[in-house]
Amino acid sequence: MQSAVVGVVRAASRYRWTVCALLFFATVINYMDRQILGLLAPVLQHDIGWSQVQYGRIVIAFSAFYAIGLLGFGRIVDWLGTRVSYALAMLIWSVAAMLHAMVGSVAGFAVVRALLGIGEGGNFPAAIKTTAEWFPRRERALATGIFNSGANIGAVFAPAIIPPIALAFGWRAAFVIIGAIGIVWLAVWFAIYRSRDPRSLDDDLGEAQDEVEALDAANVNARAPGWGVLIRKRQTWAFLIGKFLTDPVWWFYLFWLPKWLNESRGMDMQHIGLPLVCIYAMTTVGSIGGGWLSSALLRAGWSVNAARKTAMFICACLVLPIAFVSYADNLWVAVAIVGLAAAAHQGWSANLFTTASDLFPKRALGAVVGIGGMAGSIGGVLFSEVIGQVLQRTGHYWVLFAIGALAYLLAFAIMHVLTPRMTPAKLDA
């Protein structure tokens, strides 16, 4: 009997890392599909003739509908479970990515970017809930950091392969080829992923229940709480504000760095890839390192509150040098500064996402991540309009980098005021 139990534990331990790998590759695809527009922006601007403000509003179309997708898929994930909801999200955004090849106007790009945003909104609610179902608390930030590093790998691969594809076959082919990769992932997901009853996690992995798991166990048959219940909790607002203030900075890096390198550093599409690859390679270290740090502190006996906040504060401080990047004369010094800030963001993000599972039971996790993600998207919409207007009027990026430098410390301070001890939310059964 004991050997059978050990076998179950080992199988669960091995398989949960297979699950993490699936989440990682989905996030790689998510960011490749998302980033292709920014990489091809100089070519598309020439072919279609959009202005800075029009490009900003195409980004806004994605951001606005990404917010809707996050909110909607947050509930769908809690309702349908991770297996079906993740597959649905991947199908929608992969088809939307390929549909970019069929449009040739500002309005057309706005429409397909909106559809892409709806589908991509399902990635993080599904991934965070899957992580909470398969990983004990001591490993969640590390697992989140690993799958979240898929965003960085996608951002590394994208500038390495998309410009050559576009130069060889045209920008329309680039959208079709990159979008089709999601269909391949979808087939693998259905073939090897099995849903899991999260209540069996503690037994399989020998993890003692903490307060959040105890709340799950006490309300095992309770329905997922509605948005009205969640929005009244201070814990929801802590996560929401953290996303609202810092997600737009990451989107600025994602959508505008290629244009910054082109306009401020004079780099064309043939030479823009290497600096972007270097920046996003650094973010991979930040994502995994940030998740590892808080997990290591937990294993060392630190409280969840101390471990998460220490890691997040360090990341917030590492962003600060980007305020001075516009004064760097050397290209590679500027790349190193931006890479450090982007890496720090991803370390921050790995821990911020994990705070949702620290503060809420699993039955509410998809909805909470959706609410926070929607707030981040709204922030992205507002910041995208600011970016477009600033660049249209001044042509200078320094004020945008300065905003990005200060956003994390502000978010950290507000989150600490709202959740000084990170006490889990108590929801009505």
TrEMBL record:
Segments traversing the membrane: 15-32, 53-74, 86-112, 141-162, 168-192, 237-257, 272-298, 310-327, 333-353, 365-383, 395-418
Protein name per the record: Major facilitator transporter
CDD domains (alphabetical): MFS_ExuT_GudP_like (cd17319)
Residue ranges annotated for the Major facilitator superfamily (MFS) profile domain, each copy included: 19-423
Keywords attached to this entry: Membrane, Transmembrane, Transmembrane helix
GO MF annotation: an example: hexuronate transmembrane transporter activity
Any GO CC annotation of this UniProt entry: membrane
Organism per entry: Caballeronia choica
Membrane topology qualifier: Multi-pass membrane protein
Pfam families: MFS_1
InterPro entries linked to this entry: MFS (IPR011701), MFS_dom (IPR020846), MFS_Na/Anion_cotransporter (IPR050382), MFS_trans_sf (IPR036259)
Compartments, record wording: Membrane
